[in-house]
Amino acid sequence: MSKLFVGIDVGKRTLDALSLDDSDSKGRGFSNDENGFAKICTWINNSPELTHVCMEATGPYWKSLALYLVAHGYIVSVVNPACIKSFARSQLKRSKTDKIDARVIADFAKAMSPHEWTPPAPEIAELQSLVRYQQAIQQMRRQELNRLESKHLSKEVQDAILKHIEYLETEEKHIAGAITSIMKSTKNLRRMHELSVSIPGIGDKTAAVLLAEIGNIDQFLTSRQLISYAGLCPREIRSGTSVYGKTRLSKVGNAHVRKALFMPAMVGRGCNPHLASLYNRLVAAGKNKKCALGACMRKLLHLVFIILTKRTPYNPAVIFQ
C-alpha cells in the first residue's frame, strides 16, 4: 500500500475528510462522534501506519477524534490553524468551504509532513482542563464585578450578581483545590512543579498553567522551539531601505502561556537577577519598557526550559545561556 494523506476539517457536529494519494483523491462527510470516527477508519481503507491524518487545532472539537485515531494506530498531526491559512494563501485559494479546507489540510500534510501529535499524559490533560476552567471562572467573576460598577442596576439585579459572584468564588476555591491535588498526584508532576516555583517570579498558579500548557517538556528540543510555541519570538518587519516596521511579539502560538508569563515577568524584573539585568540593560540601551518586558517573558520561559530539562532547581549564580 502507498502512503495516504487525509485532511479533516473539524466542526462542532460534522467532519469533512479528504484522502489523497499519488493517483487519486476522495472526500466524504461524517458526524463528529464515535460512530463517525469508526466510519472514517472504514472509509480510509488503508493501513494505519501508512496513513497520515492531519487536522487543525481549532477549539475543543478535534481532541476526541485525534485520541480515537491515535488509539487505532494512525499517524496524526494537529497543526496551528495559522499554518493552514498561510498554506491556502500560497495556493491562491479564493473560496473557503469545509470541503476546500479539507483538501488544503490534506495537501499541507503531503507537502510539509508535519510532526506527529502525541496525546498528553492523563494527569496533564486533566490539569489543563482544570486550569482553563479556573481561568474561565476568573473571567466571569471580573465581568460580574464590572457590572456592579453600574449605578443604574435594580436591587434585584444587584442581589443576583452578588449571589453569582459568591458562587463563582466558591467554585474557584474548589477548582484550586483540585489543581493542588493533581499537582501532587504523580511524582513527575510534583517534581516539575517544585522545579518551576524555584524560579523567582513564578508562583504556584503560574507553574500550574505552564505545566498544563507545555505538557511534556522533552518534546521541545531547544528553548527556541518552546519560545516559538508560546508565540514569544520577535517579529521583525524590514524590507529594502523603505520598509522598517516596529518589532513586536509574533503572538503566533499558545496565548495561555503568554498570559501566564506577563505578571511573573513584571515581578521577576525586581527579584530575579537574570531578568533584572536583562531588563535594565535593554532600558539603558534605549528600548521601551514594553519591549524589555517582552524580552523578560522570553528569558523566563528560557529559564523554565533549562530548569525542567536539566531537572535541577534554579540557581542565581549560574549563567543560563
Rg, rounded, reads: 23 Å
Low-confidence stretches: none
**What kind of assembly state do the chains in view correspond to?**
single chain
Number of helices: 12
Quantity of strands, as a count: 9
| Helix percentage | 55-70%
> What structural category characterises the helix and strand content?
alpha/beta
Task: Give an account of the 3D structure.
The chain has helices at about 35-45, 65-70, 80-90, 100-110, 120-150, 155-185, 185-195, 205-215, 225-230, 255-270, 275-285, 290-310, and strands at about 5-10, 15-20, 25-30, 50-55, 75-80, 235, 240, 245, 250. The chain is of the alpha/beta class and about 325 residues long. It folds into 3 domains: about 5-110, ATPase, nucleotide binding domain (Nucleotidyltransferase, domain 5), CATH 3.30.420; about 120-185; about 195-310, no CATH class. The strands form 3 sheets. A 5-stranded mixed β-sheet has the order 3-2-1-4-5. A hairpin with a 3-residue loop joins strand 1 and strand 2 (about 15-20). The longest helix is centred in the middle third of the chain and has 29 residues, at about 155-185. The mean pLDDT is about 95.
Can you give me a brief rundown of this structure?
The protein is of the alpha/beta class and 321 residues long.
Could you name the key traits of this structure?
12% strand; five-stranded mixed β-sheet; 9 strands; 3 domains; Nucleotidyltransferase, domain 5; 321 residues; alpha/beta; two-stranded antiparallel sheet
